Amino acid sequence: MNIGITWKVLRAAGDLARHDQWARPQLESVQANELRRLREFAYARSPFYRKFHQGKMDRPLSDLPVLTKAQLMEDFDELVTDRTVRLDAVRAHLGGGGDSRRYLGRYWVNATSGSSGQPGIFLFDENEWVKVLASFARAHEWAGVHISLTHRMRMASVASVSPWHMSSQVGATLSSWWMPALRLAASEPIGEIVSRLNAWRPEMLVAYASMARVLAEEQLAGRLNIHPHLIFTSSEVLTQETRRRAEQAWGHPPFDQYGATEVGDIAAEHSVCRHRHTLEDLLIVEVVDERHRPVPPGRYGANLLVTSLFSRTQPLIRYELNDSVRLGAAQDSCGLPFAILEGIQGRTEDVLSLPTAAGASVDIQPLVFHRILDLLPVSGWQVAQDAPDRLTVLLSGSSDGIPESALAQRMKQALAAEGVGELQVSILKSAVIPKNASGKSPLIKAYRHQGATSRIG
User: Which residue of 186, 241, 320, 430 lies most exposed, with the fewest beta carbons within 10 A?
Assistant: First the structure.
């Protein structure tokens, strides 16, 4: 890690730590000031935003149009504020191999997998990248890890190792003498992952939530023998059963992080209250319904809009994330001024559209399946919609004692209570839950009819 970046991250993390002492009115005042500066910069430097917000440049944030990933990519060259940046050249840079070169010698490039149908490309200059790194460092601080050059902590990550994935770029930038890192692809065979983790003996483990469940089962079975002081999960919904199994395996539950390639960490758990708090000094978050109207705290929204207060190269103002989340209704007693991210149901792509008896359709939230399947004595599960009216439930691990017909009937009854009509439910046992290209094991897989864009990776 570049020593200059190291000091900048430590300094930025220290600044963020001082924000924890703010009162809510001070936070809101800073947000308003930073939003004003962001909009002024975007209107001065981005031809796209001058047109996109035309006639509304003096309007409140909630009156501005929503920016989708598809629109961002379509108008990429006009949206970025550096007139020398061109999408074709950035794509050529991405195709040039997995080295550590920066685009134009100054931009870190991150790319989403495109599992929801549209890949995205996001650029960060050094100041922006320092803020991203500091957001992850803050999650570690909130978990009780003091970031210091004098304390060495061996870290292992089991996620994506794609050179353009954010987890890889963050790991590569932070890897140093004081945080030596082992980065393993979650798509590797589990035996290889277990062997390398046993040899590395990580003090900190970072993994996809589904992979944390698998590793916990390996630890409980005696094949994995590691003793991390801290466990972080990300990228997928952390279920209560995965949390319980991880605590059983390692003696303490994982800390959950919620982030995005576009902006870094959005929310992280604090050790005092064990609630996820949003990083509102870096971002403005809006929970909205299908028509982008605000959803009150305590209720799940259809989408999440984020405004990155520190983005300048590629301004993100009311940028849409297809995640269904719920904010808490009250400020936490732990004293932090930041809103609580109370619940995460997953992406809207995780919602299954199933037929009703009247021939219409009803959306089924993942929580309906969690209520039943999280309680089973299995190491993993997955619900796949094979056709509009057909589901296959995969169970892995010790599932021999589970009566398949009774489980299928219970699922039908639960779905009928939600308005679903006739449905075929098959229960299958599998040695492992299949992974996608990035190594995730999605809990819900929506039906892909021919010619449609995939709703889940």
Answer: 430
